[in-house]
Specification:
Elements: H1 17-24, H2 28-31, H3 34-43, H4 46-63, E1 69-73, H5 79-87, E2 92-97, H6 100-106, E3 113-117, E4 130-136, H7 145-155, E5 156-167, H8 172-184, H9 194-203, E6 207-213, E7 224-230
Parallel strand pairs: 1-2, 1-4, 2-3, 4-5
Antiparallel strand pairs: 5-7, 6-7
Bound molecules: S-adenosylmethionine (SAM).
The site of S-adenosylmethionine (SAM) has 20 residues, from helix 5.
């Protein structure tokens, strides 16, 4: 199966045609996904998965509840995406990632899953089509986090659920130190603190429902955190609404 082929197969398409055209012209090198293409070669090693990603995926699966149309942004090789489909046979599940290397490793997984190549800052989907969006261990890599949140909000239905899981260092100095180090290594990322993530979500028009630490053996000093948020119903007065994303 070719990545990106079956996101809307046989039913109303979830895809956003103009966004997809832009993505088709995006080379992996220009988009920075080459690093992740290389990483995909070792990504599925059982020890790596067990020690690092499995506890995070378990936490998301427990929190997902009864969603029926679910998007996994920065899905990587689709380990979580496939488990979502396994545990919710009737749900429509789509994994989206900008790395073709990661996606091609996911495409062999069983189950009717849509694999779509796309950038978190320009999700190739129509407005208000998913009732849950999840993203695990990926958000810190998005160069424009504000824009990624605006996109996640756009594709969620009102009252839709957002689940974000990543390391959120307790203080900003730690976030800044890792950001500086990763920049020097040529692959910058930014782990927001729990408070910063909450502020980002609220500025994007989400209501934060909860934040809790996830225990895992790898990196015990910097445990990941699961943040749950919802997109308010139309006309709700609980938030001020989103700021416009900055132009890219
Ligand atoms: C550490 S992996 C996590 C994969 C998966 N979510 C998991 O938990 O196993 C980070 C993923 O984010 C993807 N990614 C990074 N920046 C992205 C962007 N701007 N748009 C879409 N995907 C991106 C990478 O290609 C990679 O597959």
């Amino acid at each position: 199966m070719e990545a990106g082929q079956n996101a809307g197969a046989g039913r109303t398409s979830l895809k956003h045609a103009s966004s997809q055209r832009r993505l088709d012209g995006m080379s992996p090198t220009r988009s920075g996904s080459g690093f992740f293409d290389a990483w995909s070669l070792v990504y599925d090693f059982p020890l790596v998965q067990l020690a690092t990603y499995r506890p995070v995926h378990n936490a998301v699966l427990r929190a997902l509840e009864h969603s029926r149309v679910i998007l996994d942004v920065g899905c990587g090789t689709g380990q979580l995406t496939a488990r979502i489909k396994e545990t919710r046979a009737r749900a429509r599940v789509v994994g989206c990632d900008f790395s073709s290397g990661m996606l091609h490793r996911g495409a062999h997984r069983r189950g009717a899953i849509g694999w779509v190549r796309g950038d978190a800052a320009r999700l190739p989907f129509a407005d208000e089509v998913f009732d849950a969006v999840v993203s695990t261990e990926a958000y810190h890599w998005f160069p424009d986090q504000e824009r990624a949140l605006a996109e996640m909000r756009r594709v969620l239905v009102p009252s839709g659920r957002l689940l974000l899981a990543m390391v959120n260092p307790p203080v900003r100095a730690v976030s800044t130190a890792f950001n500086t180090g990763s920049r020097l290594l040529g692959r910058p990322f930014y782990w927001p603190t729990p408070g910063e993530l909450r502020t980002q979500l609220e500025a994007a028009g989400f209501v934060v429902v909860g934040q809790r630490r996830i225990f895992r053996l790898a990196g015990m000093l910097l445990p990941p955190m699961l943040t749950s948020a919802t997109k308010p119903r139309r006309g709700s007065t609980t938030t001020a609404g989103p700021r416009s994303p900055s132009a890219s």
